[in-house]
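Thread: "does anyone have the structure for this chain?"

Original post by V.I.:
We have the sequence but no experimental structure in hand. Need at least a predicted one for the grant figures.
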Amino acid sequence: MKIIEGGVTAPIGFKAADFAAGIKYQGRTDMAMVYSDVPCECAGTFTTNQVKAACVMWDKKIVESGSKMQAVVINSGIANACTGQEGFDACEATAKAVEKELGVPYDTVAVASTGVIGMQLPVDKLVNGVAGMAGILSHDKEAGTKASKAIMTTDTINKEYALTFEVGGKTVTVGGMSKGSGMIHPNMCTMLGFITTDLSIDKTLMQQALSSVVKDTFNMITVDGDTSTNDTLLLMANGLAGNDTITSKNEDYDKFYEALFTICRFLARKMAGDGEGASKLFEAKVTGAKTKDDARTLARAIVGSNLSKAAIFGCDANFGRFLCAMGYSGAKFDQNDVELFFESKKGTLKVFDHGNPIDFDEEYAVSIMKEDEVMVVANMNEGDQEATAFGCDLTYDYVKINADYRS
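Reply from O.Q.:
Generated one for you, tokens below.
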């Protein structure tokens, strides 16, 4: 694989655009469109919250129907969740506006929203935004970057990534963008993610790959323990790379899987490190677990604990907080088997060894925890399974941001 510049417009045949529609934000763009020159096979994963936004149900219908997908329209600022029939009408109006402007069937147009729950979308602004974007769609790298910025809410940085690899002598490109900063918890998060590729691949295999990759990437993020109503991750493949269609789990499928995992993991880590109010990325790596589920459960418990997150913010090597979180996670283990470490680019420090605390250098521990990326490593010494979860520290700014989110 080769990492390249760009995002969703990196693969052949994909265009993007952004627009300042004034849906909630002023003085910035707040709508984006991703469009393929030809219809795409599509796959998707969505929130497990029982309260689902209208756009989530709209997109699930497209993905599960076996239909093609050719465009996605995203707005930031208003979530279109808990909005009743009016919310569904807004989805349809947006999709039909794309049909009018670009001539693609409205039932191949996905829609996505992020922002405040319980507010109705201004349909006239959405339609106007679609018209504005239809005329400026571009294959340029900059168009993809601008789209990744337009979908931000409380994010402080845009998130995009792209790479290439070879399949049957053809160069295949995969690009992606995502947003997410708060209301983030496993299964998935307040995240919108869009991945494009010019690979030709069977739709069923696409869905299997995406559903599998999500388990160890986006589903391993937690910022604040809240699972959103709007989580949407869409994958579109238009086949324009010209490779023979992948129809079985062979070597070519493995290459695609690795590329998809790489992009999703990169975006997941970027989202976790950009959690609302965060000052650093906080990762937990669990090794030597009995089962994969145990490893995932333990890692998520460590990064999900408010006390753990506060300790990371304060650079306090209070290892008991992390062990406590592991203990109530639901995974079964013997504390006398556990080794615990703090790790960053400053080095690695062991603080707990098979049931016993270690007399460690507190100043060195602080220097490790002051870095922008800090990891807690827990070796369970009970098996061969491992998992990594992604989170962030808990700062004063998190409360400030969410206390006045609607104002």
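V.I.: this helps a lot. The first strand starts at residue 2 and ends at 4.
O.Q.: and Residues 183-189 have pLDDT under 50 and may be disordered.
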